Task: inverse folding
């Protein structure tokens, strides 16, 4: 059971992140939630790569049991994607704040009728 | 140069050209480079389709590493068909985008628009070419990130909100996909699609593999804007520049559908998918809900771009029904409809863009009387609309015909009746447009759209009719694909 503990932690984090993203009305906090959600998935990959009692995947004399390096590499890519997403989200939030003067979802109304643009 | 290099050239070219545009930073030059790249890609992709159809799949191993260790690009008939759809829609839409951007973009965004457009284009092509599931995830995110940017370029400030909403939902979807890949990798130790399919067979009862399948499917359904995960699509399409709506309506959801077919048929196989849940019934049910929810929302929508975004939800519903039948004829119907729907929706959004070009507005009351003022533009909307309904002599009729035939093959009479009822709902919103455009007095004194906008419109409108008569290409290729998928194990 203890062997699975790390997965419980990871899926717990995942759900916390998802919950914040869905429930919180502040756009910045939404992005924070999204990041927690993504990072928990990165941790899932690292946990998968772990081999009991193994060393880090660096070639040295006397060690012949290594963790799987492939998920590490994959996650390096996924982290870059995650950073790009967060950067874009924050850039959008800056522009939203410039245009609407607020970043609270309750004060931002996407469904306003088009009449306000009707000249 | 061997033919195998073709399997990756169409992905590299747009991705390489994008930073070059940024360095050049001249609008005219940027347009012509983008145009040259699109045409070149269209030629490559056509060659690919001919080659693949004649001699079977083409492989390219990145960096010379053989699969399953290295990343493999594998173009089979299904990939080539999707590539051709993406390249065609993008190439037809581009000259239009160049003219249209003066009304729908800020003036400092012109060059950036082409840069992001090319990245988005390259990513969509990459999605359909790659044979490595993690590579597919990366392209999924590249195409998603570039689409958030393109949507946010819309002039209406609500485009920013629509883009943010799509970003949150899209990232959750992509992360679900990533979780699925991780769980699958933990079980099989491979990322290559073909290698996966060999190893998944032994995992029929593994809960981890089942969870992986569910995460992958949920992520894709989000990207596909399948009911009930379609919440992001109406605003995204409504506030994006029209050329962008046309590109995405024609390609992005289609590529998501391609991924769904890949995951079900290539990776997991039908038996696995059916073993977990009544997956076929689930997909059909969601598809049907999508058809009705989308069509009914479209009927009551006054903003035309949002109306046709809802209509896309309905059309995705038809596509899902075809996939859910899990039969060769069902898959054929879906693929035919993928092709035809790309033609219809691109035509509609381009025509709406032409209306915006002249009037600046796009609600149903603004097109009043435009039938006589902008005859060609409105005629395109009507032809594409008839095609959406599935009236005979349009390409939509062919799609509906194949879909209903394949449903009846399984003796599902109620389902067939419901599909036809859905078409009647489409008729209601299309006739609302006809009524407004021809039977109401004009509200705006405008002229017909300029020639560069009209040419792509008329081409697509013509294609909508042409493929209603000559089905050798659309049906021929689709049938060949579904035979490959169902008869020969991949």
Result:
């Amino acid at each position: 059971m203890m062997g699975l503990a790390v997965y419980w932690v990871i899926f717990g984090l995942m759900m916390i992140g998802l919950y914040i993203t869905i429930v919180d009305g502040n756009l910045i906090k939404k992005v924070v939630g999204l990041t927690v959600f993504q990072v928990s998935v990165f941790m899932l990959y690292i946990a998968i790569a772990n081999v009991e009692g193994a060393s880090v995947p660096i070639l040295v004399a006397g060690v012949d049991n290594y963790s799987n390096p492939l998920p590490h590499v994959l996650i390096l890519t996924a982290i870059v994607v995650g950073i790009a997403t967060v950067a874009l989200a924050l850039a959008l939030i800056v522009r939203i704040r410039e245009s609407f003067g607020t970043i609270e979802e309750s004060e931002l109304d996407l469904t306003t009728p088009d009449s306000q643009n009707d000249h | 140069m061997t033919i195998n290099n073709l399997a990756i050239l169409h992905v590299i070219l747009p991705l390489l050209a994008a930073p070059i545009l940024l360095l050049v930073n001249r609008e005219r030059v940027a347009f012509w480079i983008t145009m040259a790249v699109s045409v070149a890609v269209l030629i490559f992709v056509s060659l690919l389709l001919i080659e693949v159809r004649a001699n079977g799949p083409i492989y390219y191993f990145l960096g010379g590493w053989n699969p399953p260790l290295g990343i493999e690009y594998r173009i089979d008939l299904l990939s080539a068909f999707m590539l051709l759809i993406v390249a065609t829609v993008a190439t037809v839409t581009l000259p239009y985008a160049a003219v249209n951007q003066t009304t729908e973009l800020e003036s400092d965004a012109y060059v950036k628009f082409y840069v992001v457009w090319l990245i988005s284009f390259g990513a969509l092509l990459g999605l359909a070419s790659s044979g490595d599931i993690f590579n597919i995830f990366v392209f999924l995110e590249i195409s998603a990130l570039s689409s958030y940017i393109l949507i946010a370029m819309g002039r209406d400030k609500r485009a920013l909100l629509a883009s943010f909403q799509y970003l949150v939902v899209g990232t959750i979807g992509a992360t679900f996909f990533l979780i699925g890949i991780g769980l699958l990798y933990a079980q099989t130790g491979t990322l290559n699609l073909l290698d996966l399919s060999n190893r998944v067979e032994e995992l029929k009862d593994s809960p981890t593999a089942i969870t992986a399948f569910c995460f992958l499917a949920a992520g894709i359904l989000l990207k596909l804007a399948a009911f009930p995960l379609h919440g992001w699509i109406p605003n995204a399409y409504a506030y994006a520049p029209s050329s962008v709506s046309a590109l995405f309506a024609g390609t992005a959801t289609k590529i998501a559908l391609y991924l769904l077919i890949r995951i079900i048929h290539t990776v997991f196989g039908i038996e696995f998918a059916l073993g977990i849940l009544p997956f076929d019934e689930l997909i059909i049910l969601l598809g049907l809900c999508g058809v009705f929810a989308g069509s009914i929302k479209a009927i009551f929508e006054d903003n035309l771009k949002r109306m046709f975004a809802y209509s896309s939800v309905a059309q995705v519903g038809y596509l899902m029904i075809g996939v859910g039948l899990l039969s060769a004829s069902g898959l054929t119907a879906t693929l035919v409809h993928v092709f035809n729907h790309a033609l219809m929706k691109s035509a509609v959004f381009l025509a709406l863009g032409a209306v915006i070009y002249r009037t600046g507005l796009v609600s149903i009351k603004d097109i009043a009387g435009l039938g006589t003022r902008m005859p060609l533009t409105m005629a395109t909307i009507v032809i594409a609309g008839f095609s959406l309904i599935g009236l005979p002599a349009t390409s939509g009729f062919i799609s509906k015909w194949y879909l209903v035939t394949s449903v009846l093959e399984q003796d599902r009479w109620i389902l067939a009746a419901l599909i036809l009822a859905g078409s009647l709902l489409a008729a209601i919103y299309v006739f609302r447009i006809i009524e407004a455009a021809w039977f109401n007095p004009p509200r705006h004194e405008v002229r017909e759209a300029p020639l560069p906008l009209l040419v792509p419109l008329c081409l697509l409108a013509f294609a909508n009719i042409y493929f209603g008569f000559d089905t050798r290409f659309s049906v021929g290729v689709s049938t060949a694909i579904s035979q490959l998928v169902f008869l020969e194990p991949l």
The mean pLDDT of chain A is 84. The interface with chain B takes residues 14, 18, 21, 27, 30, 34, 37-38, 41, 44-45, 48, 70-71, 74, 77-78, 81, 84-85, 88-89, 92-93, 95-96, 99-100, 108, 110, 112, 114, 117-119 of chain A (CB under 8 Å). The helical segments of chain A are 5-23, 27-49, 69-100. Chain A is about 60% helix and 0% strand.
